[in-house]
Write a structure and sequence with these properties.
By secondary structure, this protein is an alpha+beta fold. The chain folds into two domains: 259 residues, no CATH class; 92 residues, no CATH class. It contains 16 helices and twelve strands. Strand 5, helix 11 and strand 6 form a beta-alpha-beta unit. Helix 4 packs across helix 5, helix 4 crosses helix 15 and helix 7 runs parallel beside helix 15.
């Protein structure tokens, strides 16, 4: 594969370089090849990844077959079809690969859902439901994803298709879409819990007392707190809060708390880097007088736009005692990492171009895209490590002047 001919601007967009492109890609294909028993299927999977990384506008079976030099799209399409290989086995490989590339003591898990607008009603899990990607109710599929994020970058490491009740209870539709018998209806919250537990069981993360998770759902937070897992959780401005204070019983919400904080409570901090540099906001936190395990504390954290103070975001925090405001702001900012994963995987790699209608086909497509995305994340991470390890060099003009 020749990067300049097959990838367009994708590589430079993700990593800024063609550093070790071919060698790294060969290594990735060898790694993921362990999930495929037959040589022909391994070759097709490698060609599928090449197609995802190519400059093709649509990652369809026909276009990727042309990229690979195949006469017909059958091999690409059958890769997502009834072939005998496990998308979960491939997922395990991709997850390990991503962690090895991005692993860091301060890494976090980020959980979110994204939607895939669809036509028709035959694709597994498709229904009239809210799609965050579209911002409205659409005929769509919804997947719950987990990303791993660290100072070196971020990558999707797990995924699961949401199966609405109308699908879960319809044996005929399940059979046509090859939904396994052991897949029952589960809320997105329950799915997220299982995905997080899976990551922990598989030891996708090292043990570290400072490890955090950035999550979206309140019920998940309660589950995490019970397991002494620190978290930063995005919540609504009007989320009900009940507490006992020196003044007695109080019912309030994050917005009301933020409005009563004095000017001295606010500190300007960065919430990570954006396309135009550091994302600077005003941050404040308020302690919650709730019972917690020894060594932990709870807070309401508020992020305020410096140009428009009426624009705020709110978070519940469960953290170890002594964690500073700057670290909490940084953790809250990492929530955007999974949104960036979605955006780039859709725009560059065809995450939303899945043609398969079956349950297995959806998971196979998503996992192969995750493999391609993890490969690009590794290139970027290697470049960051290389840049940070180089000693400062004097420019030729400086040396001449000396």
């Amino acid at each position: 594969m020749i990067p300049s001919q097959r990838t367009g601007g994708v590589v430079s967009d993700w990593s800024g370089t063609l550093l070790e492109w071919e060698a790294e890609l060969v290594a990735l294909k060898r790694r993921i090849g362990e999930a495929f028993k037959r040589a022909e299927v391994r070759e097709t999977a490698g060609s599928f990844v090449d197609g995802l990384l190519s400059g093709a506008e649509r990652k369809t079976g026909w276009l990727m077959a042309e990229q690979a030099g195949f006469d017909r799209p059958y091999r690409m399409q059958s890769l997502l079809g009834p072939g005998q290989w496990s998308a979960d086995a491939l997922r395990d490989i991709v997850r390990s690969y991503a962690f090895e590339a991005l692993g860091d003591a301060d890494g976090v898990l980020v959980v979110d859902e994204t939607g895939f607008v669809k036509k028709g009603e035959h694709s597994a899990g498709v229904a009239r439901q809210y799609s965050g990607a579209a911002g409205r109710i659409e005929n769509s599929q919804v997947g719950v994803f987990v990303a791993y994020a660290s100072r070196y970058g971020q990558a999707l490491i797990d995924r699961r298709l949401y199966l609405p009740e109308v699908w879960a209870n319809d044996e005929e539709r399940r059979a046509k879409a090859h939904v396994p018998q052991d897949i029952a209806f589960a809320t997105k919250v329950e799915m997220a819990r299982e995905l997080i537990a899976s990551a922990r069981r598989r030891r996708a993360l090292p043990f570290c007392p400072r490890r955090r998770a950035v999550w979206r759902r309140l019920q998940i937070a309660a589950h995490a707190g019970a397991r002494r897992q620190p978290y930063v959780l995005a919540v609504r401005s009007n989320q009900t809060l009940r507490m006992i204070t020196d003044e007695g019983f109080v019912q309030t919400d994050p917005k009301t708390i933020a409005e009563t904080l004095p000017a001295s409570a606010w500190t300007m901090l960065a919430a990570g880097e954006g396309t135009e540099g550091l994302r600077l906001y005003d941050w404040a936190r308020y302690p919650l007088p709730w019972t917690v395990d020894e060594g932990f504390e709870r807070w309401v954290l508020t992020r305020r736009n410096r140009k428009d103070p009426s624009e705020c975001a709110y978070y519940f925090v469960f953290a170890r005692q002594g964690v500073g405001l700057a670290e909490l702001a940084g953790a809250a900012g990492l929530r955007w990492t999974i949104e960036e994963c979605f955006e780039r995987a859709k725009s560059d790699l065809g995450l939303d171009h899945c043609e398969a209608r079956s349950w297995h086909g959806w998971h196979r497509h998503m996992t192969l895209v995750m493999a391609a995305a993890a490969f690009l994340a590794k290139l970027a991470a290697d470049l960051r490590r290389l840049s940070s390890s180089k000693a400062n060099e004097r420019s030729p003009s400086q040396e001449a002047a000396a």
